[in-house]
Specification:
heterodimer; A: mainly alpha; ABC transporter involved in vitamin B12 uptake, BtuC; 2 domains; two-stranded antiparallel ribbon; 17 helices; 4 strands; globular; B: mainly alpha; two-stranded antiparallel sheet; 2 strands; 72% helix; 3% strand; branched-chain amino acid transmembrane transporter activity (chain A); ABC_transp_permease (chain A); cell membrane (chain A); membrane (chain A)
Chain lengths: 426, 313
């Protein structure tokens, strides 16, 4: 980490500690979810970004961690002495144990087959859990209460928030430190060239099992934090959508950069917190964002930022800033057009509108959107999104051409610099 | 006896339906190495397109139009989207199809609502094929099976008996060599992807009229289809036929059986002990019927990743 990054990180931490007490309960809860999904995504990306193993079943370890913490919470309720702040240890331990077993088998395969093994393991949990009353509480799930400890009541959300923050920062830093150890570097080598790792005399399979187990352990801690925050969990934690969500967040955030997944987790969690009240189509937007990122920025948001930081000295901000702003404007126009069409579709194909049509005896009555009234038969209604989309695409293509040219010029300059530099050293 | 015969009939028809969807998936994987997460969404898309078209133009038009529309969507995906991420490796292709699956599902919810739609078979097909043990056996189940059998025969003849089939098989084995011999491999890939999608669309159009048509049908079938292609061997058409029938029969039999591990212990006199232990040992087969396919998939992946009939590991 450079000193700038350290300062930024410290600043972020100060904000995370100082601001939440002044926020409403909804925001405090949302921040807890942001923190938990950040840790989940970081743990997932240890396996994906570092070892190059794409898991489609991380919900299994998330759920196992949550249930383990809940069972310990029930035991504490019944009089067992165990400090409440240390409850996530149970989740971590459960994740570790299950992770060692699952990791041993799944890392026997690589690529698509690895993804399928992890998927199958998660589906095993998902389909068995509702039938195991004792462990997973059947379909209703398991519930418990947070017990007070040493003067902390854990009755308010802000206390839970600080507990979560502490654990997430601790685990996040531990994961980062892990990537700096010699073994962490070996994991990278596994991703890049497994054959060579084997030739160097390492047992590649065991190394992968260890990475898998560490990832599952941290995932278990994240699950336990969710259980502590919600005080309940049921088998839906094992469902494919949980596994899918972390994949989405990680890749949108950027799997090639260590803190990229945190960006993705934050963006998506806040997105769902803010947008899900406004529209029922927010999952559609989420999918759209994911596919667009996959198509146009495969390294994710974090990767794009990282790319700019790396090239900041060669980049002339004064020159490239203008075209970037223009491109942003084009993007906003396209987004506006898409949102307009999507929301219109939601209204026009919704049940309320069908009833309104019955009321208007089969005609197409006007509908309200964004505070204005639109008539489906009026061409202006469809001209607006069309103009927005076409204008946006036009502007974006033009801006992109300029940006591409500036980057190309920068690359030429870098090559020239390097030749000069190399010549100077000689 | 009644249970056995009815279950066999239901299992075979369900298995044939699974095969219609998994055939395309395994064909695409064998050829391009892309595990298409959106494949089950094509199945759902087929059902909804057929529903939308059939409500205006009648059932048979819907059945005809659905595979064409879905096939075109598949071709567009292969032509315009997959090449963009190809350079970043198979993982990104897989993730892209995964994102597409999400989008298709949400689009369906947007236009048709997050609830089952009333997609029904025509009255002319709603009769019983024959009487068995006092109850009529629905003709439509036989119809689903027949469509699958016809489709498999046509596909098989196409692949083994025609020039096009030879080119397709050559493109699967050695794409570069086939390209060097002057065949347009990108077009072949596009059509194979389109055909696979169209088959899934056809399956959706046919099955949607019998089974419920809702936005979850893609995901529900999707995981089972993954099991089928893995057990049968990724890339093997014959393998996926065998695995489809196997899974189909298994799922129709298991829902009616209350065997458990504990009842197996009864044979050696340890049944009461097993029941006292509880947990996994007392789970009845009917309640774990959703679990066993995944256990089977796991075992196949670990012991023989090439599957029952696959050639390559």
């Amino acid at each position: 980490m450079t000193s700038i990054q350290k300062i930024l990180l410290a600043l972020l931490l100060v904000l995370l500690i100082a601001v939440p007490p002044f926020l409403g309960l909804g925001w405090q809860n949302a921040l807890i979810n942001v923190l938990i999904s950040s840790l989940f995504a970081l743990a997932f990306n240890l396996l994906n970004g570092q070892a190059g193993l794409l898991s489609f079943g991380h919900a299994a370890y998330f759920g196992v961690g949550a249930f383990a913490a809940l069972h310990l919470m029930i035991a504490v309720e019944d009089g067992l002495f165990f400090p409440t702040p240390l409850l996530p240890l149970a989740g971590g331990l459960a994740g570790l144990v299950v992770g060692v077993v699952a990791g041993y088998f799944s890392t026997m395969r690589s690529g698509v087959y690895f993804a399928l093994v992890t998927l199958a393991i998660a589906e095993l949990f998902h389909s068995l859990a509702p039938h195991l009353e004792g462990t997973f509480g059947g379909e209703a799930g398991v519930s418990s209460m947070r017990m007070p400890w040493m003067g902390f009541g854990f009755g308010t959300i802000i206390e839970v928030y600080y507990l979560t923050l502490g654990w997430v920062v601790l685990c996040g830093l531990a994961l980062w430190a892990y990537t700096r150890t010699p073994f962490g570097r070996l994991t990278l080598a596994l991703r890049d060239n497994e054959q060579r790792v084997k030739f160097l005399g390492y047992n590649a399979h065991y190394a992968k099992v260890i990475v898998f187990a560490v990832s599952a352990m941290m995932t278990g801690v994240a699950g336990a934090l969710l259980a502590i925050s919600n005080e309940t969990a049921n088998y839906s934690l094992f469902s494919g959508s949980v596994s899918a969500q972390v994949v989405l967040q990680t890749f949108v955030g950027g799997s090639t950069v260590f803190f990229g997944p945190v960006i993705g987790a934050t963006v998506f969690t806040l997105f769902s917190f803010l947008i899900s009240d406004l529209t029922r189509s927010w999952l559609f937007y989420q999918g759209l964002i994911f596919v667009l990122v996959m198509l146009y920025a495969p390294t994710g948001i974090g990767g794009v930022i990282d790319h700019h930081i790396r090239n900041r000295r060669q980049l002339d901000l004064a020159k490239i800033g203008g075209p970037y702003l223009v491109a942003l404007g084009g993007g906003i126009l396209i987004a506006a057009g898409t949102v307009f069409l999507t929301e219109s579709a939601e209204v026009l194909f919704g049940q309320d509108y069908a009833m309104a049509r019955d009321g208007a005896s089969g005609g197409f009555p006007a509908y309200d959107l964004f505070g204005l009234s639109w008539s489906p038969l009026n061409p202006v209604t469809w001209l607006v999104p069309l103009v927005l989309l076409c204008g946006g695409v036009f502007i974006l293509i033009r801006a992109r051409r300029v940006i591409d040219r500036l980057w190309a010029r920068k690359d030429e300059a870098t090559t020239a610099d390097m030749t000069v530099g190399a010549g100077g050293k000689e | 006896m009644e249970f056995a015969i009815i279950s066999t009939l239901n299992g075979v028809t369900y298995g044939l339906l699974l095969f219609m969807v998994s055939a395309g998936l395994t064909l695409i994987f064998g050829m391009m190495g892309v595990l298409n997460f959106a494949h089950a969404s094509f199945y759902m898309l087929g059902a909804y397109v057929a529903y939308a078209v059939s409500s205006i133009f009648g059932f048979w038009t819907g059945i005809l139009v659905a595979p064409i529309v879905v096939g075109l969507v598949g071709m567009a995906v292969e032509r315009f989207l997959l090449p963009r991420v190809h350079a970043h490796g198979h993982a990104h292709e897989l993730l892209l199809t995964f994102g597409l699956a999400l989008i298709i599902e949400e689009l369906i919810k947007l236009f048709f609502g997050d609830f089952p739609v009333n997609y029904q078979m025509p009255e002319a097909l709603r009769f019983s094929a024959f009487e068995i043990f006092g109850t009529g056996y629905p003709f439509y189940r036989m119809f689903i099976g027949a469509v699958a059998v016809i489709m498999f025969t046509v596909l098989w003849l196409l692949l083994t008996r025609t020039r096009t089939g030879i080119v397709v098989r050559a493109a699967e084995r050695l794409p570069q060599m086939a390209e060097a011999l002057g065949h347009n491999i990108p077009i072949v890939f596009m059509f194979v992807f389109g055909t696979g999608a169209a088959l899934a669309g056809l399956a959706g159009a046919v099955a949607g009229a019998f089974y419920p048509t809702n936005p979850n049908m893609g995901i529900e079938l999707g995981v089972i289809v993954f099991v089928v292609v893995v057990v049968g061997g990724l890339g093997s058409l014959k393998g996926s036929l065998v695995a489809s029938l196997l899974i189909g029969l298994f799922s129709s039999f298991s829902v009616g059986l209350d065997w458990s591990v504990a009842s197996m212990f009864d044979v050696v006199g340890l049944g009461d002990w097993a029941r006292s232990v509880g947990g996994l040992l007392t789970l009845e087969l009917s309640s774990v019927s959703a679990t066993i396919p995944f256990a089977l998939m796991l075992i196949v992946l670990l012991v023989r990743p090439a599957g029952l009939m696959g050639e390559r590991n």
